[in-house]
Design goal:
With about 375 residues, the protein is an alpha/beta fold. It has a seven-stranded mixed sheet with strand order 2-8-7-6-5-3-4, sandwiched between helices. α6 links the parallel β3 and β4. α5 crosses α10 and α12 packs parallel to α14. The mean pLDDT is about 95. Bound molecules: pyridoxal-5'-phosphate (PLP). Pyridoxal-5'-phosphate (PLP) binds next to α5 and α9. The site of pyridoxal-5'-phosphate (PLP) has 14 residues, from α5 and α9.
Length: about 375
Amino acid sequence: MRTAQCLDRMAPYLFAQIDAKRDAMRARGVDVISLGIGDPDLPTPDHIVDAMAEAIRRPANHQYPDYAGSPAYRAACAAYMRDRFGVEVDPDREVLALIGSKEGIAHLHTAFVDPGDYVLAPSIGYPVYSGGATLQSANTWFMPMSEENGFLADFESVPADVLAKAKIMFLGYPNNPTGACAPDEYLDRAIAFCLEHDLLLAYDNAYVDICYDGYRAPSILERPRARECCIEFFSLSKSYNMTGWRIAFACGNERAVQALGTVKNNLDSGQFTAIQDAAVAALTGPQDCVADMCATYQRRRDLVVDALRAIGLACEAPKATIYVWAKVPEGETSESFATKLLEQAHVIVTPGNGYGPDGEGYVRISLTTPDDRLLEAVRRIRETM
Ligand SMILES: *Cc1c(COP(=O)(O)O)cnc(C)c1O
């Protein structure tokens, strides 16, 4: 049999490789601490689990869900946008339920790019932006990012011939993995650029709720004219410790939302309605669970940043996200340093080059490990250095 050529061009999924290494070491009895993957260790709050327990017993929920999401879920998403950001979206036309935002982001390519087209992706970012393009036999142009420009992707440097074939520009702040946040002025420039070049701006807002030090992350739809060119992705995964539940939503420009909906109508039949009912409880219920979680991550962030600086690794304390992005020591690469930490300290960190070309020279450390294990990991890293 012959598989599609685009599959041969897919880089192996970064986290799958790291998981394999970890499993091999654990099988040998090594106590490996993973600071690799961004998967919250804290449980889903009780009131959300309780809502699910009730919802699962309702026979109506056992049938096929509404393709675009249940009316109750879409209304809750619209209410969240209004209450949090002062943004009005029409729950019927401008909101779409997703089976996790990874699903929506990956399928956005099917709705927008043809073979040979370009997508513009941050040169340090979520691997699905470029992976989705490869699966469509399309190309990715990586927009440069650096510490000097605050890790704000430089779209103004994209060459004209690439722009002519580009359909989507992906951005996501607060940014995984750098922890960078985008000022409003940058978002406004990005919107103006996408309008000028007839691009869809796909804004990945997975970390909007995970903010520290009083910072408040915006929705891009707060910005003027955003509705003309933006689709925004929100996920319950990080905000409510629901990564395993697979529930998210897209909202924004109606044409973009509807195009993504058309792809999904033909590929999936929506998310289990009981999960959507639980998500309604998450979005409309008490939000102190989110504040508590942020306090936990902030404490861990400070612990990691202090320890890294003490051993001479340069890093910023991020204002948002669940990651610390640290420069590797002189003479090391992302890969060599991550390997050294795995082999000598039995600690997994993610090599920065796995997030794109400009990630070289950095590693990403997740804050999703309980405090005692995080402290132990930091102690081991200190010993190794
Ligand atoms: C975790 C994450 C998501 C969310 O993915 P889900 O599929 O909703 O779990 C999206 N984008 C980025 C950058 C992430 O880190």
